[in-house]
Write a structure and sequence with these properties.
The complex is a heterodimer of chains A (about 110) and B (about 160).
Chain A: E1 3-8, E2 11-16, E3 20-21, H1 26-37, E4 43-47, E5 53-54, H2 56-67, E6 74-78, H3 82-90, E7 99-100, H4 103-111
Parallel strand pairs in A: 2-4, 3-5, 4-6, 6-7
Antiparallel strand pairs in A: 1-2
Chain B: H1 9-13, E1 20-27, H2 30-46, H3 51-72, E2 80-88, E3 91-98, H4 129-136, E4 139-145, E5 148-156
Antiparallel strand pairs in B: 1-2, 2-3, 3-5, 4-5
Helix pairs in contact in B: 2-3, 3-4
Chain lengths: ~110, ~160
């Protein structure tokens, strides 16, 4: 899974460089997320601005990525495109995650 | 057959384009389903289904097709899965056929939304698929026929909040 990570102001921003998180990508996504977050800072933001399609397996993988964090580590989401936002809204998982408009607004907030 | 000519833009927005249909078959694997969905989306787009509905239709079909891969063919070699779709007057009607195992209890799951209350450790990682199918479809029908499964998914464009 093509994930790109950048650490700024002690926040780890992970950008998904693929258009889909679907059934065929879910396990790879979860494993790649574990590798990136294991030794990472407490605040992790998943940038989904390049993802245009997510199915229930992809949604489950994002939930799993949150559950596999260590105690005290936090996973936020940012940059949800319309169809991705809709899946989170329909399943009410939008209430489970802190969702930012874009990864920039997260680091901006932290700096301010 | 009559086709309305000179459709206005409001009809176009609601997806009331010329009726069309297609039938596509793939091997029921994760990669096969991904390619099939991509082809389906291209056909829907070429047929004039408005862009804002493509994701919803793809999601419903993805959930149903992934279930075929994960459940119908779970205990046997992956066989074929066919999707036959017709689009007319704001309705997207699809029949999905496979030669795999029937649904347990001979009917598809009720699709209750998994609870996301409580602690992080107990958050649901699955069980959303049938909720999404039933939530986004106007009608779902299942028939066991000729030793295979036929799932009918009836989606109405324009009745969903996008």
């Amino acid at each position: 899974m093509d994930l790109q990570s950048t650490e700024t102001n002690n926040i780890l921003i992970i950008t998904v460089n693929e258009a889909r998180i679907d059934a065929s990508a879910a396990i790879r996504f979860k494993d790649s997320m574990r590798a990136l977050t294991d030794d990472g800072p407490p605040h992790v933001v998943l940038d989904l601005s390049k993802v245009v399609f997510i199915d229930s397996s992809g949604l489950g993988a994002i939930v799993a990525a949150r559950k596999q964090l260590r105690a005290g580590q936090q996973l936020d989401l940012a940059g949800l495109t319309p169809d991705v936002a809709k899946v989170f809204r329909l399943t009410r998982m939008d209430a489970v995650f802190v969702i930012h408009d874009s990864p920039d607004s997260v680091s901006g907030r932290a700096a301010g | 057959m009559t086709a309305k000519v000179g459709r206005d833009t409001s009809d176009r927005r609601a997806g009331r384009h010329m009726p069309f249909g297609f039938s596509l078959t793939a091997r029921a694997t994760e990669a096969g389903v991904r390619d099939l969905l991509s082809e389906c989306r291209a056909r829907l787009e070429a047929g004039g289904v408005p862009h804002q509905y493509l994701g919803m239709v793809e999601l419903v079909w993805a959930e149903a097709l992934n279930n075929v891969v994960e459940h119908a063919y779970a205990e046997m070699a992956a066989g074929p899965v066919n999707i036959e779709a017709t689009v007319a007057h704001g309705q997207v009607l699809a029949h999905i056929r496979d030669n795999g195992l029937p649904f347990p209890g001979a009917e598809p799951p009720p699709g209750h939304l998994p609870s996301s209350d409580g602690e992080v450790e107990s958050l649901p990682e699955g069980g959303f698929g049938w909720f999404l199918i039933r939530d986004l479809c106007e009608r779902v029908e299942y028939r066991r026929e000729d030793g295979g499964n036929r799932l009918t998914l009836d989606i109405r464009l324009g009745t969903q909040t996008t």
